[in-house]
Write a structure and sequence with these properties.
By secondary structure, this protein is of the alpha+beta class. It has ten helices and 22 strands. It folds into three domains: 2-180, no CATH class; 192-329, no CATH class; 362-451, no CATH class. It has helices at 2-22, 42-45, 54-61, 325-331, 333-359, 364-374, 377-396, 401-416, 418-424, 430-451; strands at residues 33-35, 65-73, 78-79, 84-92, 101-102, 110-112, 120-126, 129-142, 146-150, 154-161, 164-171, 175-180, 192-207, 212-213, 220-221, 225-235, 256-270, 273-286, 290-294, 297-303, 308-314, 317-322.
Amino acid sequence: MFQSRSIQLLCLVISLVSHCAYSQPSAHSQNPVYSSNPVYNQETVYSQKTVYNEQLASLYEQGNVKLNAWLSHASSDIAVHEQVTLNIEVMTDTWFTQGTKVHRVEVDNAVVLPISSFAVNSTVRIDGKVYSSQLWEIVLYPLQSGEYLIPPVALEVGVKQGRNSVEGIVMTKALSFDVHKPSVNMMPDRKWLTGKEAKIEEKWTFISQNEQSQSLEGKLKVGDAITREITLSAQDTISMLLPEVVVRPDTSENEFLFYRESTKYNDSEQRGVRQAQSFEKVTYIVNSAGDVTIPAIHIFWWDSESQTEKKLILPEQRLDVSHTFTSLLKEYKVEISVSIGFLLLLALGCVSFYRFVKTQPNNKWVSLARATYNKDIVLYETAVYQILLVHFQRRVLAVNQESVEGIGLIWQRYQKSVMREQLASGDCSRFLLVKTLLTLLMSARARATHIG
């Protein structure tokens, strides 16, 4: 009994050593397979060896060699982009004499990851018999909904039988599974992912000409740059299936300029758990003053473990941006140009008026303006009479007795009017003086029209 047990332990040790020395996947399975129309060609798969070794077939039928294949996934209903694992276990009641080679697996509309370099080795007791076991895991991710077929997978194995080594090829059975879209948000125009423990983080760096800060609470100015670093991570997925987090915003470029600096991806595996990460770095350059808004980011996340839809959110950022002197001139160059032109014209008009007043102090209009400003009634009436006479004569196109009598009649009416009494009382305003002038001018115009 003791001798039998020792032989079994010796067989197990030799099997493990043999596997470490030889066990490796096929050379053409080192890269992910992105198949759109897989063709399973049995003659190609078995071009180097016979389809099935008779001795190996006999061992398989007698139960000395066993082969199992099954699928494992997080949920009963597989979602698009959910991780699906094809498990292939080959066993022998002796030990493996060479490294097992797993041929390439191609699945339509799915991403198939490279096969691990080493199998999971163990011993299994079945019906009192101890088997050396090798477990291979092939991970794939369906890209769309529908029915999927995994064709038979070929394994080249070698086992010990007596004093000889029996080598040949064993085939798994074909497996199938269905994939569905559990959420309406799984659309090409939306950001979404499938996996577990999804997280998103961001870091802002404000860069100005004078300083660098980690906070956006400081005062921003036009031309300042804002760097945004976003890390998106999830388990049971791969980085190529993570959505692009930051896209060029729909807002006008008048608010800010957008530059994508870099995007990095990382895939890792620890204790059988796959972790995918994406690192995006973008820069916003503020292009206008006022309230500038960087929109929020929403990522829909289908949790394959809890079978629920969740959401990852990065809130919007509202920035208060002030002008620099240069940006102020650029922003309001039209208004500033118009204002400067108006001021120049106004200054030119004032200078011209000042020169006119100085050179012609006895001008009737100058006298009228001076009298109105100083409320000098005598000077006011003299200037008004002169203006009425000139205005009336221009209307009748002649200087005659009738025109003089017309002015006299107008002036007599003025002398008897209420306005004259108000002016004579000394309690008058400049507005009343202007109103009186306009009234007399209208009377002179009407009289001149009647005479003409």
